[in-house]
C-alpha cells in the first residue's frame, strides 16, 4: 500500500526527526505525537509512533559490509592505493551509513487502537496497517550481533502468506520487543460478542490485508474458538499447578523445558546431517567466487583436481572424515539451534523459545491450534524419541514455527502435547491385512521391476543393487503396515502412517472441513480405501491409508455422523 | 450429470489419446532411428510395435471412459452436506458440509461452453475437503452454486 506523497513531504517529516536518537517519541503524527519516556508504557489505545532502537545503526553497516566489499575491492584494484580510491571507499562507507540513518529515522511503528501501523517515509510514504486481530503468531529472534547489543527482531505472522505481507521490526531493544509482544498479545481477552462485531466490520479497510473470502470467515471462527480456548485454559492451570510455576501478572506457565542432556538425541533425527556437505559446497562456491577475482581459472582447478586424483588415499581420507563429521557437526548444529528449548503458555499463547547463538521465540495463538503431530524416524523409534509439531491454521513456515518440541522421549512429548493441546490416549485401530499386502507389494515390486529390466539390459551390478533394495523393501513394507492406524476419541481424531518418517497426527474434530474417500483400481480389488480428513490447518489433509472398506467409512461416520450418515448406503454398497 | 457430459469426456479422452499415441509414435521413431548401443537389438528392430500396442489398447478406452464416468459420477446436496462421487477406474467420494464451504465457483471451459455445461468448484480451507463437480448442465450448475452460496452464508460456522 504505497501512497506516492508529494516530494516535499519526506523532508518535512524528517525535519523534526533530527533530534534523533534518544528521543524516539518526537514524531509528529496525529494523536500519537506525545513524547514518550523510555521505559514507560507507550502503547495505549492510540499509542505514540515509535522508532526502532537506534542501536540497530551499529549493526546495519556491518550487515552491509559484504555487499560493499566487492565494489570496494574493485575500486582498490582499479585505482591502486591512491588517495582517490580511498576517497571513493570512504564515500561508499559513509553513504551506506547515511542511508542506514535515514532509513532508521524514517521508519516508525505504533499501536493505534486495534492495529499496528508500520510507516516508511524514505522515498515514498507507505503505511502498512496490520489489524491485531489478524496476528496469529509472533516470532522474536536475536541473532548474535543483535544479542550483543541486547536487540531483537520481532516478526508478525499474519497468515497472509508470503514474506511481503508480514510485519518485521528489525530491531527493537529486547525490553521493547517483550513489551510490544505483551501489547500485541494482550488483546486476546476479548469477549466473544465483541469479537463477532469486530469481524463483521469490513475487512477491506485494513490496509495490507488482502480481502480474501477466507479472511472474513477466519474472523467469524473466533466466536466458537474463543469459547473453546477459554474452557481449555480454565482446565489447564489445575493440571499444571503441580508441574509449572505462575509468574507475575502474566498467566504464564512452563509446560516443558528440554534438559540439555537430551540434546544428545539430536543426531537421531537426521537433522542437519548434511551440514558438512553444505559447508563444503559453500566453501567451493566461495573459492570459485574469490578465485574469479584472483584470476584462478578452470585450468588451475583442473591442475588441482589431477593432483587430488594422484593421491587417492587423501581423497578417501577426506570422504571418511566427511562422513564421520556428519553426526558430529549435525549434532552440534542441532544443539546450537535447539539449546534450552522451552515451551510455555502465556495469555492464550504457546511460546516456544530456543537457540544458543540466535535465540528464537515463537508465539502461537492457542485458539488457532487444531492439534499436533508426533514425528519419528526409523532410528528415533528405536530410541523411543519423537519430535512434536503443532497443527495451526494459517501458519506460514510451519516447519520451524510450529515446532513444539525437538527430539525428546516419547512419553515426555506425549505428556507435553496433552498438557499444551489436549490428550489423546486411546490406541489406534490397525488396518486390515490387505493393507499389509499392499504395503509390501509397493515397497518391493518397483525394485524387482528395475532389477529385471537391468538384467535384461545386461547391467548386473545395477541389477543386484536393485535386488538388494527390493529385499530391504520387505521389512520396510511390514513397518509401513505397522505404522498404519486411525482412531477417534470423541473430540480428536488421529491417523498415523509412514516408516522412514512416521507421523501421527492428532486433530480436533471441529477442524475437519470435509472428507475425501479414495479408491484406486488396485485398492478396490483388495477391498480397501484411503480416507482423507480435510483439515484447514497444517498440511490440509490427514489420511488413513488402506482402511477396510466399511472400516474407513465408519471412521468418517464416527467422527462426523451427521455428515456421512445420510449417504452411508452409496459408498459402501 | 448432464448427458452432454459424455460428449465432454469423449473430447477430453480423444485429446488424451492423441497425445499418448503421438508420444508413442515419436518414441518409436526415435528408437528406430538411433543406434544407441545400450539398447538391445530386438528393441530397436520392433519399435514400430509400440504405437500399435498403445493404439489398440487405448482406442476402446476412448469410448469406454466417458460412458463409465457417466455411470459413476454423481452429486447430491442433502442435509446440508455436498456429496460428490467421481472417477472411473479409481473412485473418489467427497463429503463437504455446507457450513465449512468458503467459496463456490462456477467455471466454464471452451468445450463446456460449446456444450452448455459448467463446473462447480467448492472450496474449503483444505484441499482435501474441496470438491470439483464437472459436467453439470449450465442452468443446473448455476442454480446449485447459487443455492450453495446462500446456504453457506446462512450456516457459516467455521473453525478454521
UniProtKB/TrEMBL annotation, chain B:
Q: Which residues form the signal peptide?
A: none
- Membrane-spanning residues: 7-32, 47-68
Q: Show where the YdbS-like PH domain sits.
A: 71-146
Q: Which Pfam families match?
A: bPH_2 (PF03703)
The protein's UniProt keywords, in alphabetical order, are: Membrane, Transmembrane, Transmembrane helix
PANTHER family this protein is in? TRANSMEMBRANE PROTEIN-RELATED, UPF0699 TRANSMEMBRANE PROTEIN YDBS
Q: What is the name of this protein?
A: Membrane protein
Q: Which species does the entry assign this protein to?
A: Planotetraspora silvatica
Amino acid at each position: 500500500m504505497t501512497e506516492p506523497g508529494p516530494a516535499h513531504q519526506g523532508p518535512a517529516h524528517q525535519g523534526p526527526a533530527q533530534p534523533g536518537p534518544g528521543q524516539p517519541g518526537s514524531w509528529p503524527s496525529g494523536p500519537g505525537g506525545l513524547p514518550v519516556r523510555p521505559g514507560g508504557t507507550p502503547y495505549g489505545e492510540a499509542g505514540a509512533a515509535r522508532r526502532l532502537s537506534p542501536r540497530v545503526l551499529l549493526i546495519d553497516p556491518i550487515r552491509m559490509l559484504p555487499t560493499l566489499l566487492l565494489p570496494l575491492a574493485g575500486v582498490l584494484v582499479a585505482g591502486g592505493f591512491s588517495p582517490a580510491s580511498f576517497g571513493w571507499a570512504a564515500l561508499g562507507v559513509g553513504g551506506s551509513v547515511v542511508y542506514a540513518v535515514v532509513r532508521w529515522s524514517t521508519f516508525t511503528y505504533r499501536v493505534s487502537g486495534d492495529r499496528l501501523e508500520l510507516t516508511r517515509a524514505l522515498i515514498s510514504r507507505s503505511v502498512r496497517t496490520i489489524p491485531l486481530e489478524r496476528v496469529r503468531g509472533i516470532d522474536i529472534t536475536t541473532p548474535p550481533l543483535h544479542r550483543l547489543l541486547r536487540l531483537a527482531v520481532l516478526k508478525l505472522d499474519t497468515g497472509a502468506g508470503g514474506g511481503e505481507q508480514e510485519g518485521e521490526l528489525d530491531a527493537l531493544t529486547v525490553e521493547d520487543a517483550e513489551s510490544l509482544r505483551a501489547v500485541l498479545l494482550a488483546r486476546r481477552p476479548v469477549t466473544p460478542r465483541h469479537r463477532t462485531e469486530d469481524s463483521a466490520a469490513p475487512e477491506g479497510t485494513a490496509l495490507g490485508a488482502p480481502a480474501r473470502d477466507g479472511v472474513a470467515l477466519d474472523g467469524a471462527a473466533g466466536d466458537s474458538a474463543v469459547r473453546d480456548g477459554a474452557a481449555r485454559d480454565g482446565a489447564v492451570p489445575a493440571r499444571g499447578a503441580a508441574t509449572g510455576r505462575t509468574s507475575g501478572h502474566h498467566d504464564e506457565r512452563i509446560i516443558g523445558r528440554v534438559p540439555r542432556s537430551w540434546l544428545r538425541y539430536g543426531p537421531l533425527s537426521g537433522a542437519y546431517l548434511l551440514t558438512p556437505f553444505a559447508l563444503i559446497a559453500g566453501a567451493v562456491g566461495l573459492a570459485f567466487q574469490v578465485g574469479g577475482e584472483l584470476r584462478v581459472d578452470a585450468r588451475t582447478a583442473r591442475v588441482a583436481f589431477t593432483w587430488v586424483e594422484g593421491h587417492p588415499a587423501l581423497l578417501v581420507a577426506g570422504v571418511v572424515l566427511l562422513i564421520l563429521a556428519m553426526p558430529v557437526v549435525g549434532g552440534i548444529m542441532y544443539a546450537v539451534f535447539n539449546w534450552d528449548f522451552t515451551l510455555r503458555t502465556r495469555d492464550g499463547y504457546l511460546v516456544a523459545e530456543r537457540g544458543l547463538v540466535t535465540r528464537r521465540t515463537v508465539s502461537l495463538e492457542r485458539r488457532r491450534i487444531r492439534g499436533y503431530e508426533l514425528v519419528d524416524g526409523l532410528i528415533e523409534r528405536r530410541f523411543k524419541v519423537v519430535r512434536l509439531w503443532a497443527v495451526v491454521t494459517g501458519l506460514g513456515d510451519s516447519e520451524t514455527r510450529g515446532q513444539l518440541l525437538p527430539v525428546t522421549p516419547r512419553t515426555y512429548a506425549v505428556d507435553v502435547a496433552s498438557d499444551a493441546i489436549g490428550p489423546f490416549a486411546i490406541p489406534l485401530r490397525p488396518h486390515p491385512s490387505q493393507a499389509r499386502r499392499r504395503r509390501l507389494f509397493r515397497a518391493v515390486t518397483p525394485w524387482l521391476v528395475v532389477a529385471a529390466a537391468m538384467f535384461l539390459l545386461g547391467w548386473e551390478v545395477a541389477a543386484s543393487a536393485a535386488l538388494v533394495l527390493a529385499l530391504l523393501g520387505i521389512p520396510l513394507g511390514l513397518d509401513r503396515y505397522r505404522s498404519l492406524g486411525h482412531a477417534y476419541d470423541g473430540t480428536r481424531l488421529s491417523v498415523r502412517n509412514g516408516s522412514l518418517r512416521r507421523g501421527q497426527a492428532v486433530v480436533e474434530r471441529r477442524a475437519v472441513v470435509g472428507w475425501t474417500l479414495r479408491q484406486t483400481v488396485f485398492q478396490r480389488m483388495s477391498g480397501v480405501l484411503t480416507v482423507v480428513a480435510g483439515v484447514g490447518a497444517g498440511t490440509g489433509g490427514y489420511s488413513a491409508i488402506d482402511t477396510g472398506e466399511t472400516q474407513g467409512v465408519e471412521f468418517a461416520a464416527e467422527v462426523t455422523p451427521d455428515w456421512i450418515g445420510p449417504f452411508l448406503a452409496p459408498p459402501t454398497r | 450429470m448432464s448427458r452432454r457430459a459424455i460428449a465432454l469426456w469423449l473430447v477430453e479422452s480423444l485429446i488424451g489419446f492423441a497425445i499418448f499415441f503421438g508420444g508413442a509414435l515419436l518414441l518409436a521413431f526415435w528408437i528406430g532411428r538411433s543406434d544407441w548401443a545400450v539398447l538391445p537389438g530386438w528393441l530397436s528392430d520392433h519399435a514400430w510395435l509400440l504405437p500399435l500396442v498403445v493404439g489398440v489398447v487405448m482406442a476402446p478406452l476412448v469410448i469406454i471412459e466417458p460412458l463409465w464416468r457417466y455411470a459413476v459420477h454423481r452429486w447430491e446436496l442433502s442435509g446440508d452436506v455436498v456429496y460428490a462421487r467421481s472417477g472411473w477406474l479409481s473412485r473418489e467420494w467427497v463429503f463437504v458440509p455446507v457450513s465449512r464451504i468458503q467459496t463456490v465457483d462456477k467455471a466454464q471451459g471452451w468445450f463446456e461452453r460449446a456444450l452448455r455445461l459448467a463446473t462447480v468448484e467448492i472450496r474449503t480451507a483444505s484441499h482435501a475437503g474441496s470438491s470439483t463437480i464437472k459436467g453439470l448442465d449450465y442452468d443446473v450448475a448455476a442454480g446449485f452454486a447459487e443455492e450453495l452460496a446462500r446456504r453457506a452464508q446462512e450456516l457459516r460456522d467455521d473453525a478454521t
